[in-house]
Amino acid sequence: MMQLISQDHYGEFVEELADMHRLRYRVFKQRLDWDVQVSGDLEVDDFDAFHPIYLLQRGRDGRVQGCVRLLPSTGPTMLRDAFGVLLNGESPPASPSIWESSRFALDLRNDAAGAVSGIAKATFELFIGMVEFGLARGLSSIVTVTDLRMERILRRASWPLKRIGIPHAIGTTRAIAGYLEVSRDALARLRREGGLEQPVLWAPVTMATA
Amino acid sequence: MHRVFQTFIDRLSESVDRADLQSALADAAAAFGLHCFAYLSLPPRPDDKPLLISTYPAEWTAHYLQSRYERLDPVILQAQHGTEPFEWGLGAETMTLSKRQQQFFDEAAQFDIRSGFTIPIHDGRGPVAAITFAAHERHPAFSRGVERHGEVLQFMALHYHAQVRQKLSGDRIIAGVALSPREFDCLRWAALGKSAGDTADILGIKRRTTVFHLENAKQKLGVRTISQAVARYSASMRTTP
């Protein structure tokens, strides 16, 4: 199950967001040892200050085990403000039909269930959630900065990254920027590959009453 | 609790200056029964002054900054050593204090600052900031507030730090003039032909906030009209590598 949390609902879902920041700490600080900002067991960075939309993936035990952060390309993005070197001289995308995804994380522990071609179902759910989000918003694509390992996973999952420029070493990883297709075709391919025929993304439709 | 957090997030989003940032956290802390806070951001170079946003008594904070107490303050030193939040002061685990440090605590006590809960923030290179919620004494309401809301406070502290960095630093230089990130963003969209209202929609802020940022940009650039500001912006974009 994928859950969408936007700024208007941060208060209602503060515990889930805290769980997400703990997940990000485990993945980006503990596992990957990236240069990230932390306090206690939480990771929060400058781009969280721009009130992104977060997609959370819940395991069968209800735990937040996956997440991705989404920002409109019309405002500050990691590609524009932090990883300009990956643009290879091109201007950063700045369009209402393109959003940027970042802080994509999965910590599956005991729930690597239903793996297809070595990719866990939960990973497919996260990808499908992103495409469903994109379709609901009328996006043409999602731009992202990722690493070569994730690029391979995306290709195997049949959601290949369309590269901008070439890989660069950033910290301890080889990073690459590119576009992910948002389309009904892409959705159909991911659903088929992942064996997930139902919609995955849920979002609150009303504001919480005061 | 949820509503306090939501209000806090929304107010941070609308903050344009120090005063806004100060009252956003002051009000959220007060809602949790915590009446005094200090946000201290450590300077990148040790000789620079730290950034302090606080509701501690002004006389104390002025004295603190002038005396460069951030180098001596045992609470700041402990925040530099680890990322785990901790309680300090009367009733909490006692720290081993030098005579000078004990003197420092006595001075603070004169301003009714005797105990607190501190949240350290570190990045890949080390400690960068700390937020402290302080009290007169370790009375039950303070401890209860910390116990019940400690996790959310940590979360709020990190968000706060991210917002302060965005709003009070990270300037963009145009024609030798430093514009704040928001001033720069608003000018960028004006250069693309967007009205203040359109820009406000794009950036997810109020129209009057966009106007405020554009006015500041004009003033900083020393021009009277938006077109003149846009001209400066475009010229500077052309020459930047």
Percent in strands of chain B: 15-25%
- The number of distinct helices of chain B, counting runs of at least 4 residues, comes to 10
Beta-strand percentage range of chain A = 25-35%
Cα-to-Cα separation, first versus last residue of chain A:
27 Å
Number of helices of chain A: 5
Shape of chain A: globular
- Average residue pLDDT of chain A: 91
Which architecture of the largest domain in chain B does the CATH hierarchy give at level 2? 2-Layer Sandwich
Outline of chain B: elongated
Highest-level CATH class of chain A = Alpha Beta
Looking across the biggest beta sheet of chain B, what order are the strands in? 2-1-5-4-3
Instruction: Calculate Rg of chain B over CA atoms.
Output: 21 Å
How would you summarize what this structure contains?
The complex is a heterodimer of chains A (about 210) and B (about 240). Chain A has about 210 residues and is an alpha+beta fold.
Characterize the structure shown.
The complex is a heterodimer of chains A (about 210) and B (about 240). Chain A contains 5 helices and 10 strands. By secondary structure, chain A is an alpha+beta fold. Chain A has a single domain, classed as Aminopeptidase (3-Layer(aba) Sandwich). In chain A, the strands form 2 sheets. In chain A, strands 8-9-7-6-5-4-1-10 form an 8-stranded mixed β-sheet. In chain A, strands 2-3 form a two-stranded antiparallel ribbon. In chain A, a hairpin with a 5-residue loop joins β4 and β5. The longest helix of chain A is centred in the first third of the chain and has 18 residues. In chain B, the strands form 2 sheets. Chain B has a 5-stranded antiparallel β-sheet with strand order 2-1-5-4-3, sandwiched between helices. A two-stranded antiparallel sheet of chain B has the order 6-7. The model of chain B has no long low-confidence stretch (mean pLDDT about 85). By secondary structure, chain B is α+β, with helices and mostly antiparallel strands. Helices cover about 55% and strands about 15% of the residues of chain B. Chain B has 2 domains: about 170 residues, Beta-Lactamase; about 70 residues, Arc Repressor Mutant, subunit A (Orthogonal Bundle), CATH 1.10.10. The chains are: A alpha+beta (about 210), B alpha+beta (about 240). Chains A and B meet through α1 and β2 of A and α1, β4 and α6 of B.
